[in-house]
# Entry
Amino acid sequence: MNDGTNREPARDPQDLARLLVFREQAGDVEGMAALYEPDAILDIGEGQLARGSEAIRDFYAKLIAAGQKFELGDQRPAIVNGDLALTSTRLRNGTVTAEIARRQGDGTWLWVIDQPSILA
# Structure
């Protein structure tokens, strides 16, 4: 497991997906959860939402414990409007992700809404 001492922040909304994949592959649950605002929402499937840092952390901890491995997909250019950005990636299985990120006061970006699987 990664101890998180060298976690780079997302300085561009395009960084978030790459950082999520790298942290997941490293087993860094805390680092994955750190890519979301404290009150963010993550669609975890079957009509369920993980709301807030603790629920998102718990979801990713279970996912890593189950041996799930993420892969980088074909990331689309972010659409940025002021302090909000829409990010999206087409995965190898044909599904598409959609996320909304917000620029933080220090200029870094965090996700506020994450829907990791939309049927293509």
In short: Residues 42 and 114 are 5 Å apart (CA to CA). The radius of gyration is 13 Å. The domain at 15-118 is CATH 3.10.450.50 (Nuclear Transport Factor 2; Chain: A,).
